[in-house]
Specification:
Elements lengths: L6 E2 L8 H4 L8 E2 H21 L9 H13 L3 H19 L4 H28 L10 H11 L15 H21 L6 H20 L10 H15 L6 H17 L4 H21 L3 H6 L2 H8 L1 H23 L4 H33 L17
Antiparallel strand pairs: 1-2
Helix pairs in contact: 2-3, 2-4, 2-13, 2-14, 3-10, 4-7, 4-9, 4-11, 5-7, 5-14, 5-15, 8-9, 9-11, 10-11, 14-15
C-alpha cells in the first residue's frame, strides 16, 4: 500500500461553533470516509428529488436528462453506504472478537434512537394519506412490528418510510456477520480463507439472482465488497489509480442510467466501482481524499443517518406542493429553483434529529473497547 490509511485524531479545526456541533469526536477517524458519506446521502437526496418529477411530464433538454440520470443512479448512494458499513463492521470483527449480544446491543443503541423518532414521524405522515400503509385493527400491530424488526427490503413488505429497506440489509448484515464471527472465530482464519468465504457468498448471491430466485438481496454485494476492502487494508494492497476508479465509476453510472445490464450485473459493477472508490479515497493521499475531507462535506456525512431517515418526508411533501403551485411556470426553472430550498429544509429537519436525538443518544455514549472502535462505525 502506497500510504497509510488517512486516519486522524480528532483535533481543533477552524470553523464556527455551530459547524463544530456536527463534528464527531473519537479516535481512528477516517476523514475522507465522512466525506464519502456526504456524497452518498446527497446522491440519495437527488434520487428522491428527481423521482417526484417523473409524472410531471414537462421537463425538457438537459434538465430532463439530469432528472432521468439521477432518478436511476442516485439510489446507488445506498450501495456506497453498504461498502463503508461492511468495511467498518467487518474491520472491527477481524481485529477483535466481541460477544454477540454486547456487539448487537451497541448496534441497536446506534440505530434505533434516531430510527424510532423518524419512524414515529413517518407514522404521523402516513395517517394523513388518502390510503394509509398502516392497516387498521390487529393487523397494524404486526405491520409495525415488521417495520421495527427491519423486515421490509428482505421480505416483500412495503415499509412505512422508503428508507427502511436499506436498514433491513444493514441490520441483518450485523446479525449474521457478528453471529458467524462469535460462533466460528473467523478472525483466527488465514486472510485468504476469509476472502474465499466472502467471494463464495458473493457468488451465491449472483447465481441466485441470475436464476431469478425471489427476494435475493443482490444489492448486498456492496456489503461484501466492504468486507473485501477491510481485507485489502489488512493486506496493505496498493490502491488503484484514480483513472481506473473514474473509468469504472463511469461504467457503473452508465449502466444504472441506461438499464442496459441485468440487476445482478449492475449490482456487481456498482459494488466493484464503490470498492475501488473507497480503496483509493481512504488509502491514497491525493486530490480525491483532500476533497472528501472538506469540512462542509464531512459534516453532512456525519449527520447522514439523520438526513437519510427524514429527507424523503420533506422532499415528497415539498416537491408535490411546488408542482401544484407552479401552474404554467417554466418546468425546468421550477426544477432547479426548488432544489436548494428543499435541500435546506431537509437539512434543517435532519439537524434537529441529529442534535436532538442521534448525537446525544447514540454518538456520545461511552462504548467498551471490545465492542466498537468508535462512534463512526455506523451507516448511513
Amino acid at each position: 500500500m502506497d500510504s497509510e490509511p488517512l486516519i486522524r485524531q480528532a483535533r481543533n479545526r477552524p470553523g464556527s461553533s455551530f459547524g463544530k456541533l456536527f463534528e464527531l469526536n473519537g479516535r481512528d477517524r477516517l476523514l475522507p470516509m465522512e466525506g464519502l458519506r456526504g456524497v452518498a446521502v446527497f446522491l440519495v437526496f437527488l434520487q428522491h428529488y428527481c423521482r417526484q418529477f417523473v409524472d410531471w411530464d414537462r421537463l425538457t433538454g438537459v434538465t430532463a436528462q439530469f432528472d432521468s440520470a439521477f432518478r436511476n443512479f442516485g439510489n446507488r448512494g445506498v450501495e456506497l453506504f453498504f461498502v463503508l458499513s461492511g468495511f467498518l463492521i467487518y474491520g472491527i470483527l477481524i481485529k477483535k472478537r466481541p460477544g454477540f449480544f454486547d456487539f448487537m446491543w451497541r448496534r441497536a443503541q446506534r440505530i434505533y434512537p434516531a430510527f424510532l423518532a423518524a419512524f414515529l414521524l413517518g407514522c404521523l405522515v402516513d395517517m394523513q394519506r388518502a390510503h394509509p400503509l398502516i392497516p387498521h385493527g390487529i393487523e397494524s400491530i404486526f405491520y409495525i412490528a415488521e417495520n421495527l424488526l427491519f423486515l421490509p427490503g428482505l421480505l416483500p413488505i412495503r415499509p412505512v418510510t422508503s428508507v427502511n429497506w436499506s436498514l433491513s440489509y444493514e441490520w441483518w448484515f450485523y446479525v449474521s456477520i457478528t453471529a458467524l464471527f462469535s460462533t466460528f472465530a473467523l478472525s483466527s482464519l488465514r486472510p485468504w480463507k476469509r476472502v474465499f468465504i466472502i467471494c463464495a457468498a458473493a457468488t451465491l448471491l449472483v447465481v441466485a439472482s441470475a436464476l431469478d430466485v425471489p427476494s435475493v438481496p443482490v444489492r448486498g454485494l456492496s456489503l461484501l465488497a466492504g468486507m473485501l476492502l477491510a481485507e485489502a487494508e489488512h493486506a496493505r494492497i496498493t490502491p488503484p489509480h484514480v483513472l481506473v476508479v473514474l473509468t469504472v465509476l463511469g461504467a457503473a453510472f452508465s449502466a444504472s442510467v441506461t438499464g442496459g445490464l441485468t440487476e445482478w450485473q449492475t449490482a456487481v459493477l456498482v459494488a466493484t466501482a464503490f470498492f475501488l472508490l473507497c480503496h483509493h479515497a481512504l488509502f491514497h493521499q491525493g486530490v480525491l481524499s483532500r476533497l472528501l475531507s472538506l469540512s462542509w462535506l464531512r459534516r453532512l456525512g456525519n449527520m447522514s443517518y439523520s438526513f437519510y431517515l427524514v429527507h424523503g418526508i420533506v422532499v415528497v411533501a415539498s416537491v408535490q406542493t411546488v408542482i401544484r403551485m407552479a401552474g404554467a411556470a417554466p418546468a425546468n426553472a421550477v426544477f432547479w429553483l426548488a432544489m436548494s430550498p428543499i435541500l435546506l429544509a431537509a437539512l434543517i429537519l435532519a439537524a434537529v434529529l441529529f442534535l436532538g436525538v442521534e448525537k446525544p443518544l447514540s454518538l456520545q455514549r461511552r462504548v467498551p473497547k471490545n465492542v466498537s472502535a468508535s462512534a463512526q462505525t455506523v451507516s448511513p
